[in-house]
Amino acid sequence: SDHMENIYGYLMKYTNLVTGWQYRFFVLNNDAGLLEYFVNEQSRHLKPRGTLQLAGAVISPSDEDSHTFTVNAASGEQYKLRATDAKERQHWVSRLQICTQHHTEAIGKNNPPLKSRSFSLASQGSGNSPGVQRRPSQNAVSFFSVGHHRLPTGKRVPILQPDHLVDVREMMSQAEGQQRDLIRSIECLPVSGHLTSLDQDLLMLKATSMATMNCLNDCFHILQLQHASQQKGSLPAGTTISWLEPKISLSNHFKNGAAQNFPAEINKPASVREEQSIAEPCQLTREPEEINPDEELEDICDVKEDDLGAVEEQRSVILHLLSQLKLGMDLTRVVLPTFILEKRSLLEMYADFMSHPDLFIAITNGTTPEERMIRFVEYYLTSFHEGRKGAIAKKPYNPIIGETFHCSWRMPKSEVATDTGSNLSAHSPSEQATPSKDLEGQTELDYYTVKFVAEQVSHHPPVSGFYAECAERKMCVNAHVWTKSKFLGMSIGVTMAGEGLLSLLEHEEEYTFSLPCAYARSILTVPWVELGGKVNINCAKTGYSASINFHTKPFYGGRLHRVTGEVKQNMTNTVVCRVQGEWNSVLEFTYSNGETKYVHLTKLSVTRKRVRPIEKQGPFESRRLWQHVTESLRDGDIDKATEHKRALEERQRNEERLRAETETPWCTKYFLKEGDGWVYHKPLWKAVSAVQTQQTDTN
Predict the structure, then answer these.
(1) Where is the composition biased (Polar residues) (predicted)?
(2) Which residue would you say has higher pLDDT here, 607 or 444?
């Protein structure tokens, strides 16, 4: 109560896409539980321009920056506000939270819950539901009656047993299912007519039902923590506390990579039960697995995203989603609809950047530092075209933390350029066929092997690490990418922050490089991908560098997908190569000697990657992890795909929450944190260095 004073002052308020941010004079009326604002301080004696009831509101500091916060009223109305600095934001947030708590509790005291509600809840979840069986003592009344009756003097509050928590979890699962059905029913309504999916009362019902379920989940979470603290130190060795299911031994929970199914979830599809019940990854074996390339088979999956399909049919859903977004909003935590997904994980998309292994291996065959830098630029610019699957912009799956992807390529040595006379555009049509089809009868010495591994090393922020190597040519590349997406009105921008390092160990050279930004344009019509931004490639040892500009199309005129760049020797500031063209069509390289070379990207041969069959993959490998989502999307069953996707995301959230409460750090499998980056645990440069040291000692 000491902090319940009225406060006032200027804050910036976000209005809409057109008007943007505007200064407004805000007043916190603690007595009335209101947040009011005026055009300026002089108009304070007039009627407020806007008023929010704070009882039941949620005050949330924003992740965008240290100045912004939101006030979400129980009515569904929202104020997005920005203070002048972090200190002022904290002052407003703390005072608003105190006022909100005070008035919310006052409403609760004046409106106690009715006993009949408890009995109706008990009757709905007491065992009449299909697939749910309870003993008479395990009903809702016996559980919730603690709060409705005064306990006799001297009697202790009974400790909640694990089976009580399971009963509550079952009841909440039913409520969550009913809430999802409610949301689905509302969203299936037409967007025009007497009763629409955008009806204000229905939108309010969606918001309040979701808030109610979130509140119940928070309460249940507190009960789990209480039970865990009571049981702490008293558990026998070899057992664990399962937060969402009965206690079981780890050895029983996970056997041969398959999770057991629980009777309480008997009414769910088996694939969903498997997705929800995979054990906490850090409790599994996190030892790196050596993948044998001989177990990998040439990939026969050819995913092209050239069909609008469900995107065209779900236009109203996209419109509704856009109505909820604000300009510049961070989309990292926004769950996007399933029908805009392409049928592969982001980790596999990074692997598809390596679809021209002949150009990758040819880098180290350059006879001079200048030639090697130019070859790297050629490879770099040809990688993005095959990384995109089709002309339609769809979004890859967001990898869950701990997800991995493995593959490899086999490249006949005869098809790798060895001298400056080899021309990228010189491939004849007969050479453009996938070379790996004829490899089965060749000996090991006839081809090079390029291995690839990627891992999602962090969830918030979303960071992926990937590594590729060709041991025969003593070259490898290590990179980490932090994807940050923002809503830009009629497009979505994705920043790929991070850095890559190419190591040519034969030449003792290292090349650092970055990645361009990506944009999904025209998201209301036919979405397409555009790259933009400036990237740099540098080799400190040789003094050569490259500057590449991916140009976004101007509003009027201009060409699509344009790219320009130059390679120069820094010590003499001499440009040795210039490049221009389109990153998905034709590139023109002009060298210092006046020669010109054209690279037709659509005519370049593509080497299919080799991947282990799904049945041989681990439970956290991308294709096995997302197989049910992919199959449902391929069959056109969007609802089923959404259900599988939601199960994976919910499991990830539960695991993340558990780690936060138990202060358990995440254990990566293949990548180690070094400074601000992530490095593969067994890079080729360490193995080569060890061999050289051993040879030196022998001599």
Answers:
(1) 117-136, 418-435
(2) 607
- In angstroms, rounded to a whole number, what is the distance separating the alpha carbons of residues 329 and 105? 32
Q: Is 0.70 surpassed by the pTM of this model?
A: no
Separation of alpha carbons 369 and 570, rounded Å: 13
Domain range 295-416+446-680, its CATH number among 3.40.47.10, 2.40.160.120, 3.40.50.2000, 3.40.50.720? 2.40.160.120
Name residue, tokens 């193995």: 687
**Residue 359 pLDDT greater than 80, yes or no:** yes
Which single residue is written with the structure tokens 């039970």? 227
Query: CA of 322: how far to CAs of 208, 364, 489, 490, in Å?
Result: 20, 47, 8, 9
The per-residue b/e assignment along 118-136, b for 16 or more CB within 10 angstroms, e otherwise, is beebbeebbeeeeebebee
Distance from first CA to last CA of the chain, Å, rounded? 80
Cα 231 to Cα 23: distance, rounded to the nearest angstrom: 53
Q: In this structure, are residues 364 and 473 in contact, taking their beta carbons and an 8 Å threshold?
A: yes
The residue type at 362:
A
Q: pLDDT tens digits for 615-674? A: 999 999 999 999 999 998 888 888 888 889 888 888 888 888 888 888 888 889 999 999
pLDDT tens digits for range 190-217: 867 778 777 777 777 877 777 788 778 7
Distance CA 147, CA 113 (A): 10
Name the H helices within 232-309: 250-253, 270-277
What is the DSSP secondary structure assignment for residue 218, as one 8-state letter?
A: H
Determine if the peptide bond prior to 461 is cis (ω within 30°).
yes
The CATH fold assigned to 7-108 is PH-domain like (2.30.29)
pLDDT digits (tens, 9 = 90+) for 270-301: 555 455 544 344 443 467 888 888 888 888 77
Q: Can you give the residue ranges of every domain in the chain?
A: 7-108, 295-416+446-680
Across the chain, which distance is largest between two alpha carbons, in Å?
98
In terms of Cβ atoms closer than 10 Å to its own Cβ (0-12, 13-18, 19+), residue 348 is: buried
User: How sure is the predictor about 313, in pLDDT bands with cuts at 50, 70 and 90?
Assistant: low
Q: Which of 335, 384, 644 is nearest to 485 (CA)?
A: 335
